Structures are given as structure tokens and as C-alpha cells.
Write the C-alpha cells for this entry.
Amino acid sequence: MKLSSAPANLDTLTTKAAMLVASSLAVFSRTCSGKACSVGLAFSLTLASAQQTPIITTGTASSVTGTNAALSGSLTASGVETQVWFQLSTHSSMVGGSSTLPQHAGSSVSGPVSVVTGVKNLSANTTYYFRAFASNSAGISSGAVGTFTTAAASNCLISGTITLNGVGLEGVGVAQEGPYFGIAITDASGNYSLDAPAAGNYTVTPAANGYAFIPPSISVTNCGVQISDFVATVFTPVPPPTTLLNFNGANGAAPLAGLMVANDGNFYGTTSAGGTNNLGTIFQLTSSGTLATLHSFSGGDGSDPAAALLQASDGNLYGTTDANGGGTLFRFTPPSTLTTLANFNQYQTANPAGRLIQAPDGNLYGVTSSQNPFDPAVMFRSTLTGNITTLYTFDWHNFESPASGLLLGRDGNFYGTVDGDGTTGRPGWVFGMTPTGTITASYNFVCNSVCAGGQNPAAALVQGGDGSFYGTTEQGGAYGAGTIFKFTAGGSLTTLHSFNLGDGAGPSGLLLASDGNFYGTTSGGGAGGFGTIFQFTPSAVLTTLHSFTSCDGADPRGTLVQGTDGSLYGITLSGGTGGDGTVFRLILPRVWPTIFPSSGLVNAASFQGGIAPNSWITILGSNLSFKTDTWGNAITSGILPTSLDGVSVSVGGQAAYVAYVSPGQINALAPNLSPGTVPVTVTNGSASSEPVSAIVQALQPAFFQWGSYAVATRTDYSPAVKNGTILGQNTVPAKPGDTIILWGTGFGPTNPATLTGVVVPSGVTYNTASPVTVAIGGVGATALGAALTPGDVGLYQIAIQVPTGLANGDYPIVATISGAQSPSSVLITIQQ
């Protein structure tokens, strides 16, 4: 939901922090019935009074090992009950880092007393800086910064467990590769242990006949002691694909681009020919193969569409055509309304290439393809109304002509490929580019007598779980039939596989599926020479899953997509009963979702274990969903969905309310539960996970976080956090005496009670049933109110006045309600 009165950048940043990485939940970015909901303050605020300060000196670190140390300090409490804690960082400026839990140090008046706190899970051979803090009702103080260095790691101990359906799997071989090679066999409980004589970078890979493993391997960097667990699945041969549709000209012909899965669960695509005017079509296809031809191009509205469609945030479909002068940009509103938004000029920028993408700024981005001096290829930005801006012009003299669309990387930059020109010896290149058109990284393929590294990268890239970008070349490689490569944001490229005709030739783009593997097609090669479907693992193992026969399609093109049922869907350019191409479905072996057993179900704000009724939870695992989506369009009349894209969560036999799904993470609102131990399962549309036990507590208060810092705003919603906490935004920390709002979950029942599964209505203040107190560095803040946020769900506002006696610095901030406390590891910055 978007705040009606909050700055847009706050909304965007909390969305990114929550949905794109596993940090805080997107507490400020949800949509009700497709419209912005109204969020406001839940109470009126009153201000209050001042406080003051105690004395502490930082001591030394003792009992230092490679992973542990004991930190000491000297405290004079002056007759007032005092708490002590230590701040720890790897930077001398104490930026970042963490704090130990506050400990009660009594109220001695006879002189200094020694305080000692142990810390563990440190990195070997690392210099740490630490500082002692003390606070009481009179205020807070800190000592000087001390330092110590941990011992170097003497060996590399790697151990873990391999499970199948939650039970240890015996007899699996686990190989350790790196500075030293080792192998271990799992015991009856599925446990293994590897011990190398020196630390270093190792890769751990399990193997057993008849099983696949998630993840396929784990990389260990400079390890001392490393826990590496795997989940096994029974390997089942993939059956041949099913032909869902044969194009026959009248209903379309020669599809060149892959399909798109829309929010309604149907597939949408284009054909480059056929239809009423034989100039191409837009079509809809159900997962069972029912076709609806939605539009036939006429020439005046474009022709020859060759790129996949995009469903934008407004729910409409956007695409391009390749002809009609220089091509068009269009919007299509199902079931039948096509609007031409822009005509590309063949004498300036023409022939859009590849699928459009939508960036977080709401604009569309794409490229054009050209090879003449009057019409250079460009990267462009377009509004949803068709206002086009050129961001970068490719060099025609170097035959720079993109043949595929862009990818938006997780770093906010665009990544793409430039097709080569074999007649000039220029085999193409791969690039990274900022949204404003500045090249950040590039790699040029090289051809000498042969193009061993690859030639003509003509498909879009995909970003892997390791952050690298994976792509293909149509030609080149060891056998001239194309390659699969890995490209990094730093500009390095590694060739991972060379096709050899037998396993395919002319690969298309790659799909990263929910099982962690890549899937793709080749336009030629294979057993019959009509193309293949293949699987490519992160460990660079290629398996041919199917060779086309022409009767079931030929010359597959475009990138495969994964449906909500977990199956793969794609198209062929030709073949089939009519010879005009097909749409096919490849059913993968049932994909079992897995919740990580030890850390897979946590409070979405604190990321600590446990559940509280009507609070936000995060589920971490693998194969949880076949796509990434939010409930933005699934809330109807304020009623929250219990299923999103076929994904549902059961908590103690009750349905949770699913807000966000991705292959590795689910965010959901827990149902109204009673305290106790309950089973939690996830169903992903293909199968249900093994249950994981969770402890339900009546209260589990926690603040949402930006990194290590509590999400804190002023009453105008501007962030009250240390500058640099939020990337790209200047922020001002809270100062003593400020009134701020903290945002959290798990604060329990309200008065009056709220309904479960609906958006909190406005007009009524739903105060917490018990009072909430907040301490900053052990000093009590003035509580001004605690209530659920109107227009949202499970989101509490805790308004406080910052104590006026606090010095500049980072402090633990802790909320308490009915004896339950929020984690003391969360910090807040106070600055005069």
C-alpha cells in the first residue's frame, strides 16, 4: 500500500528493502483493490521532558581465538541501577557493526566495578574495534575505542546434513574441491564432515545416483567452521513436451518471441505473420491450450511483431512491431483494444529489438536494432504514454546493433548484448549501462581463426543467484554451434559450454527456473536437427531434455517461461501439423517446496524465529514459488488473499494471508493463532512442503529495519535515520527531544479488537491492548501512542519522544509490552 501523504522515495526504498532482498518487509508498499490506500497516524501526539548521563571506560579484549573474545570495561554506577553493553565493528570509525545485549551491572557506589561480555562467531584473522557503553535513568556514556585481532584459522571444517523429505539421506558422496581435495559419505542420519588442513576457497558438491540436490553445490570462502546443508530430491526423467497449439496461418504463424504469463494466469504472445491480414497477431492461450486471437495487425497499426509482450504495473500489455516504416510501440488492453503509442522513424531510430522492460521509475526501457549510418541503434526510455527519449546511441561504424532486450540488474543498472557482424570480424559484445546511458562494464568477443569464446550474442541475459549474468551466443565456441557464458558486473566473461550440434546449435535465451537450474532451447541441432530443449545447471552440466522432430515443432525461438504450475512453456517458429509453428508445454518433475528447517520461518521484522498472531512472518526456502509477485492486485474490497499465484501457506491448519512470493522467500500475515507449537507448510501449485514446526507466542514485538537500524520516521514520514543508511537518499537522524514514529509488528491484540484478514479501517484507533514502553540505550523514552496503522495490516505505529539527555551515537532501541521485548540488536542513531 502506498502512503497518501508520505514522500514517494520512502515508499520506493522500503519496497526495495523488503521485496528484492530478504531484509525488512515492505511495510509502506501495498495496494488495496488496485488503488492507493490511505495511511495516517493512528493517534494524536503530546510531548514531554528531559533526562541526563553516567561513567564507563573501555578495557581490553581477552581469551581471543579465531572466533571468540571477551570484552571488558570499568563502570562507576554512582548508586543508580545501570545497564552496560559493547559496540563492535571492523571499522575504526565504528560505522556499521553490531552491539551486544545490555546487561544489568547493579548500582555500586563504592567505586569502579569490572564488566565483561563474551562475543562469538567472529571472523578469523580480522581486526575488530570495540567500545563500552553504560546507561541509567540519568543518561548514557561511552568509553574510548579499543581494538583486538582474532587468530588466524588453522583449518577448514565443513559439515552439514543432507535430507530427503525431511529425513537424513545415507550414502551420499560429498566432494570438497579447493586447495585440498576431500570426500565424505553421509551417515545414517544424513550427516557428513570434511576437514581440510588449511583455510581457503572450497566448493562442496554432493552426488548420488537417482538424486538431485538443492543447491547443486555450495561455495565456501576463507572458512574456519562452515555449515553446509543440502536437500535431496528424487531425479525423475522428463517426459516429452506436449503440443498445446498448432498455428495454421489463420490463427497466426511464425511466432518469433516467447510467451508472457499475465496476472490472470493466462499466456499472451505474438506471431510475426498470419492472422486476418497475414501481418501478425496478438493471442491469449490458457494452460490447457485454448487459443483466442485477440488482434490481427493491419499495417497501419504495425506489423511483424517479433518481441515478447510485457505486462506493466497498470495491468496493460506493451509491445513493439518491427515493420510499418520503422516499427511501433503499442499498448494492448485485453480483450481487444490496441493503441499505437509511438512510431519509430526509420531515418532516426527504428526497428525496436527484443522485449521491453519496466523499471522502478515506471518507465519502459528498450533498444532498437539497425546497421546503417542513417539509422543507428539506440537504447531508449518511454513513458507509458509513448514519450520516447534516447539514452544511448550505439556506434554504427563498429556494427553495434542489439538484437535483444535489456535486463535490469539487482544493482539498478541495465545489462544487454550487441549482436555481431560475421563479415567484418566483429563477433559482438556484452555490456552494463546506467539508466542514464553510461557504460559501466563491457566485454568484446574475439575471433581469430575461430571464435572459440562465442560469436553473435543475440539473446537477453538473465541474472543468476550468484549475481552474475548468464547468456548465450548463436555461433562460435569450440564447435561453432554457439555457447553459454557467464558475465560479471566487473566486465569479465567465462565460456561455460560449447554446443556441438549433437546437443543443439543456435541457443536462445536462458530461463532461471524455480529449481535453481537454467533452461533453454536451440534453434537447430539435436537428434533430428530441428532443435532441442536443454537444462543447464549452475555447476555447468548440460542435459538435453528433448529433440524436436518437426511434427511436434521445429526451430524453437524465444526464452522459455515457467507457468504457475511449474511447467515450462515455449514456441517453435515452424513445424507442427500446419507447418506454421507451435506452442508447447514441458512438464518438469514435481518441484517440492522446502522450508529451511533451522531458519526458514521468522518474524518478518526481526528475522528471529517464532510467530505471533496477526503479525508479519517471512518464510525462507527453495522452490517456494514459480514466480515473483505481490498481492497488489489481489486485495478485493479490503479482503486479503490466502493464495497468490498458486502459492498458499498453512499455519497450524489455518490459512495465512500471502503478500509476497518468490522462489526463495514468502512474506505473509499470520492468522489468529493460540500460543503453542504449530506445523507450517507451503504449497506452490505443484506440491506441498514437509511441515516445519514453529512456536506461537502471544506477543513477539519487533521493529522493521533498514539494515541494522530501526525504521523510524518523523510525523511527516521523512526517515529519521543516519545519513547513508538509505542508498541514494540524504537523511537526518533523530535528535534528543524529537517526536518520531517507529514501525513494527507482533505487538499483539488491540482495543477494540481487529478483524482478521482485512485491511485496518480508518476512523477508529486500534490501540495495543497493553501499554508499550521504549528504551534507547537503556534510557526510557516518553511513549506517546501505540496502535495499528489505518489502511494497512499487521503494521503498528509506536510514537515516542527521544530522551533529551542522549549524546550523539548509535544506541540499542528496545520496546517492551507485557514483559515481551523486541530484539536489542536493533539500533537507532541520535545526533544533535
Observations:
- Residues 1-51 have pLDDT under 50 and may be disordered.
